[in-house]
Amino acid sequence: MDKPTLIYVYDPLCRWCFGFHAVMEKLQKRFQERLNIRVIPGGLAIDENAQTIQEGYPEIKGSLRQVEKMTGTCFGENFRLLAEEGSYYYDSEPACIAQTTVNTLMPERSLDFAGKLQSALFQDGKNLNHTETFIDLISDYDLSAEKFSELYNSSSIQEKTRQQFQWVQEQNASAFPTLLLEIGSDTGLMSKGYRPYDTLESHLHHLLRNLERMT
Length: 215
Description:
Layout: E1 5-10, H1 15-30, E2 36-41, E3 51-52, H2 53-56, H3 60-71, H4 77-85, E4 89-90, H5 93-105, H6 110-122, H7 131-137, H8 145-152, H9 155-170, E5 178-183, E6 186-192, H10 197-214
Parallel strand pairs: 1-2
Antiparallel strand pairs: 1-5, 3-4, 5-6
Helix pairs in contact: 1-3, 1-6, 5-6, 5-9
């Protein structure tokens, strides 16, 4: 039987996902011999929900301390300034397409790239609406800017990203972050929202142990 797959549904613009990334890294390391991990970008701010922080997401600046307290992560001063100023355009689609591009070309780097995207915004205040930002983030990968850009700008990767958004909705997984567990042809919900590492590690350990006993 193939290893189960832990599906991490997140969004590059989700501040709780930024806090959750360290948990995902620890889960990947802990269960690397027993689990595959797949990263799927979910589309938090797309279409009519793509707006400036001031217009559509004014609650962000007031929530940062709560996220930091719950997750132990720290937002950078550059992002705090963006949130305060309010004109930054919150649009998930460009970064989600970038994630899908890396997923396709270098799937082994999927989780690492998710972390790079979120650090670029939430620590460094970089613009995730610009392709140049993504090119900079892959500079230490064995992936050329030309190859990345060719796929990033293709209609096929844009369509694939949109199909993922739809799939996320169908799985009722649009409360980011969400973890799904795929066992064979069955996919089920494991957790919604931020959860600490110890809780998830214990749950996964017992679940996998029971699965392994059955095979």
